[in-house]
Amino acid sequence: MTKLKQVWDLDSIFPGGSESKEYVAYLEALATDIKTVYQQVAGDGASSVEGWVALLNEVQDVSKRMRQAMAFIGCLNAQNVKDDKAKLLAGKARTIGASMASALTHLDKHILNMPDEQWREMIAAPELSELKFNLEERRRRAKEKMSADLETLVNNLSTDGYQGWSNLYDTVVGRMTIEAEENGKPVSFSPGQAANKLLSPDRSFREHLWEKWEEAWAKDADYCALALNNLAGFRLSLYGHRGWEDVHREPLDYNRMLPETLNAMWSTIDKNKDRLVKFLNRKKEILGVEKLTWHDVNAPIGTSESKMSFDEAAGFIVEQFHRFDPNMASFTQQAFEKHWIEAEDRPGKRPGAFCTSFPEKRESRVFMTFSGTMGNVSTLAHELGHAYHQSVMNDLPPMAQQYAMNVAETASTFSEVTVSDAAVRYAKTPEEKTVLIEDKLQRAVQLLMNIQCRFIFETNFYNERKKGLVSKQRLNELMVEAQKVAYADALDDYHPHFWASKLHFYNTGVPFYNFPYTFGYLFATGVYARAMKEGDAFAQKYVDLLRDTGRMRVEDLAQRHLGVDLTTSEFWQDAIDSSLAELDEFMALTENK
Predict the structure, then answer these.
(1) Which domains does the chain have, with CATH numbers?
(2) Band of the pLDDT at 1, cuts 50, 70, 90?
(3) What is the pLDDT of residues 118-131, one digit of tens each?
(4) What's the rounded Cα separation, in Å, for the pair 337 and 3?
(5) What angle do CA 217, 222, 228 make, to 5 degrees?
(6) pLDDT at 263
(7) Is the pLDDT of residue 585 over 80?
(8) Phi then psi for 354, rounded to 5 degrees?
(9) Per the CB 3.0–4.6 Å rule, which of 332, 390, 434, 482 could disulfide with 457?
(10) 8-state DSSP, 536
């Protein structure tokens, strides 16, 4: 594979970008069809099992097309945050999405009110056999919400209210530039570019850029605090009307996960913090600094030897996937050759990385900014894992493809670990091996400490928000307090405006967009350990597990495919041991450095 494009192909989905007439026509047709479905479900629904089967198929069809529409506009807004036409299209798509949500709310009303005998007859229909879990889940969730009319009102108001605050945040980030100096010359970075530059081995440059980074977010903190307070206020108000007191109730249910599982995971992590602190203290010694600051945590300890070009990264990823499963490698090679990946390092892109799927086309698209670090290579493998996960589910009914965020991280993290482990094995020198192991251990710090600080912050913030608005100064305090707990006081300087700079806090699609990352990392680590133990025989088991992620609770998924109990510490301890397996080797390699 040579001369790969680093700009994705969106024209094969809808030609013309934000000027696409085909996309506008697609939205209009979708709006019309959703209106038709809405009229059916807002009325009497269906009178027979056959009628319900047909209606559910229609609902799934428009839901699939809605995913396609939102995926496209998400890509447009990510590739160019200053594309005003894309922002207008996003508003139109969200309005249609609100209509879809309202239609689903009325569908849930029928599901809730259906007599038990009729319900049992319907879910026993052979045509709905693969949807039994999903339909019963909808029926249970419908019982826990307000009336269909009130939930519909919420959906309609959220477009200009709830979603509007998220749009405000996106606008703030989209116009933000971080003014700094590099090599003696003034430069302007987007937040995404600056985030990559903060990985520079030059500590004096990092300190300079970090100061400018904090200044930039502090300057717009008023807008970010306004958005965050109102997003949380909307959620808390909705929870109150539904009679929900625990702010973790919705995210746990969304992730099909018991609180006992979440508690077992966090408590086991806390018991292993000393090992992570040991790593951070050694990194402090390697960097030769008196104080380990927030921007030091992710700083590289090696040289450019561990860098790869995009083409080299592609070849390396495909090769490692092939060692596990040739089908996975073949799929990934197709993703590169068909230009499904947006990796170019240029201004105007949003920060971060993601994978999104186009279910009608049975394709995915991966977004990131690639600058050649091994961290970038891992991120690329991570997002391609998401794409592979979707590919093995493409033949399932759309409703059964709706896996939650925590298990969505299974294939991505599995893919990432596959690549990072291989990189360590093929290291040419002890120095290079040290750098690569450090990258893996740094990943553990990110998932076990950084993500935990987000969870602690958000939990404490929501509890304070119940009493009223939370000032930007208090948000800074809550953020630093959470960081100190999560990092076990291992740092000497923290990131007060992390709450402003981390877009995950402003996500309206997934509440508490944090702990699923840690769950997914450790769950995938456990799956990976099983794959290494069982060898080639595990490839099909892995696919079977992925296919069940949209139609099982996580505890049942783990029990069926791995034979483990997620509500106890044993699985989590084994996963943590696996993720930190190279810590002793790292300590030996870096002794007296």
Answers:
(1) 17-160 (1.20.140.70), 169-303+442-506 (no CATH), 308-430+532-569 (no CATH)
(2) very low
(3) 999 999 999 999 99
(4) 10
(5) 90
(6) 97
(7) yes
(8) -160, 165
(9) 482
(10) G
